[in-house]
Amino acid sequence: MRTYVVRRLWQSALTLVGVSVLVFVILRVVPGDPAKMLLPEGAPQSAIEELNRQLGLQEPLYVQYGLFVQSVFRGDFGQSFQYRAPALQVVTERLMATVQLALAAMLITVGVGVSLGIVAAVRRGTGYDYASTVLAVLGQSLPNFWLGIMLILLFGVALRWLPTSGFESWRHLILPAVTLAAFPMALVARLTRSSMLEILGRDFIRTGRAKGLAERAVILRHALRNAAVPLLTVLGLQIGTLLGGAVITESVFAWPGMGKLVVDAIFFRDFPVVQTVLILSATLFVVINLLVDLLYTVIDPRIRYS
Amino acid sequence: MSAAAAWPERRAPLLRLSPPALVGGALLALVVLASVLAPLLSASDPLKPSFSRRLAPPWGLGGTAAHVLGTDNLGRDILARLLHGGRLSLALAATSVLLAAGAGILVGVVAGSAGERLDALLMRVADVQLAFPVIMLAIAIVAVVGTSPAALVGVLALSGWVLYARTVRASVLTIRRLEYVEAAYTLGATDLRIIARHILPNTIAPILVIGSSQFATMVLLESGLSFLGMGIQAPRPSWGLMLAEGRDYLSNAWWLATIPGVAISLVVLGANLLGDGLRDLLDPRG
């Protein structure tokens, strides 16, 4: 158990080192002058030389990487020249909007996805099962940027029920959250269905029923709890889907989060911001998945890692 | 079961695909065929604007049979753009799936057979790759290297190799310890021969399943990038780009954004259904 925790911590730390190397490589070892890329277009030669000196670009690569890591640990990700402010500050200001959107989408993913999966498994072969399977297949096949636009067309343009862009009230959150949740929700529904089906066939479920437990208790307390373990891994991995999906969803709905920020940043060639978003989202992913793995031992007492 | 009864099953596994999988395969085949035959199916030029015929609705909704799916904001024929756009999207997706599979299989074989240290290193690299949301990594790379089709294929392939690598590695690690492989070693077979003759054939089933579902992912990813303006560039037709262009005309010409989305969804649906069907067929436990 202890060795497992240590090993996972060590692995996560190594992954984060890899993340920093990759981001460093993408932005430095590309053809062209990195200082030119990190500065706005048309920056004077003196500024380019100054930044070259600052970044230590005449030093060997490993020294440059060391300097890069040092500044990252100081929280210094460079200046965003689009906003003329520290890149980290620019990104963290937008982080909350993305977290809000991702949490709402996660809520839908878990709430609707798990319910659909349970209903489909319990009523296997009925209309409910087929309907939820069709919904799940569609959820995995509709591109989220198109789904978003179709929701705008239906609820915004035709019915005029919901606002289609902006960030003012919870009503603004509905369409983007549904759009972002569609794919992971479908995945969770399918996974819940298949693991519930497997578990509902086990002996202890029959025992539970035989000893007169209410069907509700059998399904929610015994079956679902056992199905939760594989589900949790998938949910952890969906953090990546949500952060990535946010890039597109936020662009469709003009949601002022990290995803829209990074798309705008690319068009302005605001590389310090791009770099910050990449590092931040990868770190979030690694840390959350580490927590999920550690949480297993709590949810499923049978798991004792050696 | 007698040998005669077992024989047809061996001969035509595809015929045992479930109905949804057959529908998926047919759907995919239809779209691929339509894209390949694009010049024959639509006489219109996908790039030629015609300002007198801007925003014509589809045939049957007030439009004419000359433009079955209507025209876009520049008066270009949507059907022609859809078919030609499909050629590019499908070719890019297929190429990147092949590249990703090739690279992934190679890494998986090396990781599974070249010793613990290299294995650990390669698997950490895979972890790093997975830590980034695919689309974020893709747009960062595209921003640096540009939006040429070659760059797009590279980025897409980069996003997809890990699944193959992990699957092949796991198979290599299990199969290596099986008795028949050890027997082959004892008989003096080389590593390369064992990998090629005994290990890889056993990984074909999962690779097919991954590849089929991944084709869907690649189509989504490419059209997503094009939608954001970081994939295929105008005036080239691309489904994602057509969708993005149609976004500005939602209130007066809904078909601009709707039609390309239907095309993407059909391809993705087809590939997903086929992938699911293959999985059911090839992996009886799943």
State Rg of chain B. Answer: 23 Å
- Mean pLDDT level of chain A: 85
Poorly predicted ranges of chain B: 1-9
The helix/strand order of chain A is: HHHHEEHHHHHHHH
Main beta-sheet annotation of chain B:
none
What's the average pLDDT of chain B? 83
Most residues in contact: chain pair: A-B, 50 and 43 residues
Radius of gyration of chain A over alpha carbons? 24 Å
Cα shape of chain B: elongated
Q: Helical amount among residues of chain B, as a percent range?
A: over 70%
Beta-strand share of residues of chain B: under 5%
Number of strands of chain A: 2
Strand tally of chain B: 0
The 3D shape of chain A can be described as flat
Q: Level of helix content of chain A? A: over 70%
Strand content of chain A: under 5%
End-to-end separation of chain A? 5 Å
Q: Which structural class matches the secondary elements of chain A?
A: mainly alpha
Characterization of the model:
With 306 residues, chain A is an all-alpha fold. Chain A has 12 helices and 2 strands; from the N terminus they run ααααββαααααααα. Chain A has helices spanning 2-28, 34-38, 45-55, 61-73, 87-122, 127-141, 144-158, 170-200, 203-210, 215-253, 258-267, 271-299, and strands at residues 79-80, 85-86. Chain B has helices at residues 3-11, 19-36, 38-41, 78-113, 116-131, 134-145, 149-176, 179-186, 191-227, 239-246, 255-282. The longest helix of chain B is centred in the C-terminal third of the chain and has 37 residues, at 191-227. Chain B is elongated, with a radius of gyration of 23 Å. Mean pLDDT of chain B is 83; it is low at 1-9. Chains A and B meet through helix 1, helix 6, helix 7, helix 10 and helix 11 of A and helix 5, helix 6, helix 9, helix 10 and helix 11 of B.
